[in-house]
Amino acid sequence: GELYFRYEDVDASVVSSSLFLKDEVNQRIIHRDKAAEEQWIQTISAVPKITLIESGVLYVFAHDFADIIALLVGVGCAVYLDKRPLSVATPQIEFTSGLDWLELKCSFGEEEIDLAALLRSFQNAASLVTLSDGSVHVLDPKIRKSLERLARHLNKDDEKFVLNKQKIPLLDQILHGMPEQSIPDAVAAYRVALSSSQKRQISPRASFKGTLRPYQLEGFNWLEYMTKLSFGVCLADEMGLGKTIQILALLETRRKASEVSLIVMPRSLVGNWRSEIEKFTPGLKILNFSESKRDKVDFSKWDIVLTTYGVLLKDQELLSATQWQHVILDEAQAIKNHNSQTARAARCLSSRYRVALSGTPIENSTSDLLSLFSFLNPGMLGDTTSEVLRQHTREPEDLKVLAKSLRPLMLGRKKEDVAQDLPAKVVNILYCEMDKSQKKIYADVIRFYKGKIAEKVEATSFNKSKLLMIEAMLRLRQIACHPSLVDTSHASASSAKIEVLMEKLEELEGTPDKVLVFSQFTSFLRIIENRLTKAKITYEYLDGKTKNRSEKVDNFQNNPEIKVFLISLKAGGVGLNLTAARYTFIMDPWWNPAIEEQAMARAHRIGQTQQVIVYKMVVKDSIEEKILELQSQKEDLVKTFMDGGEENLMRKLSPEDLELLMS
After folding, report:
1. Annotation: CATH topology of 200-418
2. HEC string of 217-252?
3. Is-above-0.85 flag for pTM?
4. Within 13 Å, how many C-alpha atoms sit on residue 399's CB side?
């Protein structure tokens, strides 16, 4: 562009040094105000992204053109394009809505313009609006930015600008800065609904057997309310805050005849879900659809179907043919790769409500959210939004808008946020599910020892067979930890406990939280050590043979790179101060709670400023679970063990007790 100074109807070139102008029309001489002209040159030169050279030519980049015009008009300049004046205009935006869509219309004064074409022009870096009377306008920069964001959700071949109502959360943020009268009723209602969700307070159905902490009750209300608004949501509470119990409160409260919900999870968590359902919602009928033998079933006979991500892939056709009440993805980071087969299979599921559970919804980058929300709210994130998530460093403002729009659909509390609702120490039983190979090894050993014990009892007596029973219980406990503890030929076998532990450690990745891992069996700790090494998780190790104990403790306490401390129960039960740890895993709980309490006390002691979360790892359908049953039924057995150890305990066990333990 060229810069001129206009004196009434006469233009003066910047490069002209003459102090006078000749007005040919009015036959007069005009005296130029050089001081004022210089002031204008300074003002224009100060406008960002303008280059003004001595010849009076202004250079701007094409994609900055509209913004520069608005700035120049704003400081008092008159701008012309092909001798036509340019003005800054604010369009009127109107919305019409149908059952599940919103259509946007745009007008300047009385003239309606093609909004879809206008928005596409932004993508081509043009952004001028020419009306039927020939006048040319640029948009107010704030309005233009909002409309540009809208343009990123427009399909290139659309003749009209129509938005699916699933985009309302995005639309709410996109319209930020637009005149209030242009906000559609659907968005206004969404804002009211969000504010109402903070005040909503209902209780779970009376048949729910759990007691929710205040923040869990808030989470239950949020889940119930937001999903009822037809939005898929992500419960992203930190590990240990009880995402499972909040979901079970929701499922029990919504329980209806012939309506069934699907919960998808890593295989290692099936046992824990089964146990939690039996504990908190015993009225819900469960189908474990994760076993190797799966026949076609009538899912409608059940309230909850449990399955795994692996089964979802194998039986995708069967699972996607069912209309579920809820589809819930636990450890939903399993679908973080948007193009993976697992993510595609999850998106094919059909349900009225969708919920994702993940303590780490963003593991690597914001693009993790693309797959998550494509599952939760199909159609919310279009191709361009997806690009914003993938190329998040290129459009930081777009990313902010996107983050604000998704925030109401995610609820994630950290322990410090709910500290007033938590006791200083929270103890959880974490159930683990053996896979087919581990189950077979376990069953073979039970069969072997049942035969030997029966022979011994027949040859002598029940009481004289108890040393063999002690040996049998030890072997079963070891197999529940890892089969190779009994037979080294099973070194490649899987361990349900290790799989669950690694899932939990993965959930803590990227956080400053530290973990204590206790086991009675040092050989089991060495197997865990090997898995940590393969996963590149830094750790310390301590057992009875460790010489430099204080050095290892100091390193764990003070080195932020050390995340895990592997400790044998015998060596680490007393004398260690490990207050840097927030989580404690008791890998093989047994009869004596005093030893477990000593292990828990390593983290939960004077100097600890955080809540401590303790997990007791128990294998489902194993001797460990049977011991929990006996402990709850016969408190005197625990006292007997504490007073006299395993041999004294065996004197108290009846043949019926033994039958339960060996079942």
Report:
1. Rossmann fold (3.40.50)
2. HHHHHHHHHHHHCCCCEEECCCCCCCHHHHHHHHHH
3. no
4. 14
